[in-house]
Amino acid sequence: MAEILLQEKTEEGILILTLNRSEAMNCFNSDLLSALADAIREANFDMQLRCIIITGAASEDPKKASFSTGADLKERRTMTHDQVRRFIFTIRNTFTAVEQVRVPVIAAINGYALAGGLELALACDIRIAAATAVMGLTETSLAIIPGAGGTQRLPRIVGTARAKELIFTARRIDAQTALAIGLVNRVVEPDQVMSAALEIAREIAKNGPVGVAQAKFAINCGMDASLGVALPLESKAYEVTIPTKDRQEALAAFVEKRKPVFKGE
What we know:
alpha/beta
């Protein structure tokens, strides 16, 4: 049986995670959710890692191309109320782990990103979408609400009024609309999604790993704090970079007019 989550690591230290349930439009059952949680947990301890890309496995039918269509509703129908509560607890914590993992995470949205699928993309730092992608938090059409962070992350990205409209109506939007409201960073042709994601990942990977990690920490933790709290937090994050070998390497490379070689130390 094929692996439910494909993992590939490039020489540049870029980890590509592919949700591999194309027959089910890459929706999350318990096994896929567990595999993603394990991969993200281990990523925190891989000091050679520079960036993560998450995408969905390709479908034989282009019309069904999917990043992820959220929770597996066939599995959900078999769950007790207690099991549903546990699943929601797990998916919310897993996506929060994606958001908080040490390195930047790029969502390569290659098709449908609906409900929990879009919530996963929202937890990523950067989102690249295929021109044919369709996105939406569609949970209210099923008499529930987004439960993996969607009600909180979407307003922080696109604004409260837009988020309320999208969630209340369960509306699906196309990639250009998503770009216009700031939901995605870039829209490319379907066959260019992974190459565009890799291009950004390589730009990130060439920079100082400690600096990138501290920048992510400062942004994530400072965004919801007052400026009086966030600025000292930034200063503390900066202080972490001062004694590093990478900072000394950057200064030496500047003087010697060469590219620095960073080791994350």
